[in-house]
Amino acid sequence: MHTLRLLWAANNETTLQRRQTRENRRKMVQIVEMEELELVQRFRFQRRFKLPGTVGCIDCTHIAIVMTSDEEHLFFNRKGYHSLNVQMVCNSNLKITNVNPKFGGATHDSFIWASSRMETFMRELHQNGEQVWLLGHSGYPQRP
To answer: Rounded CA gap, 108 and 78, in Å?
Structure first.
């Protein structure tokens, strides 16, 4: 009997609309939380390290792999072994907030950054007047 009720409720159009509304509310709550978290992170970096507008730190690291592909040259890094060059962003509490594992070890950090969603996101923030920054080493271009 419970199974029939659940099936009927799942097929009922108003029930589906209610579920979609709940899902939309959850998404909106997540968006608001992300904006609030970004704001909180800005203040944490400023308070702890005296770096206003900083929301994270960025770097790449080589993760060793066993090579079995025919595109070996893409994965052979400058240190002499096969790897993935994985880009990561962390916040002021050293919590990883973004990971990009798409590139082989032969790829330069600045190319990975230029190809990442994080770069697009940061550029859009700056175009909207936000003064936010990621800290990285000299392999990353200095841009607003």
So the answer is: 10
Q: What is the pLDDT of residue 71?
A: 86
pTM: 0.67
- Report yes or no: 78 and 86 within 8 Å, Cβ to Cβ: no
Low-confidence ranges of the chain (pLDDT < 70): 1-42, 68-69, 144
Cα–Cα distances in angstroms (integers) from residue 104 to residues 48, 88, 108, 122, in the given order: 35, 15, 9, 24
Per-residue 3-state assignment (H helix, E strand, C coil) for 34-79: HHHHHHHHHHHHHHHHCCCCEEEEEEEEEEECCCCCCCHHHCECCC
| 3-class SS shares of the chain: helix, strand, coil, % to 5 | 45, 25, 30
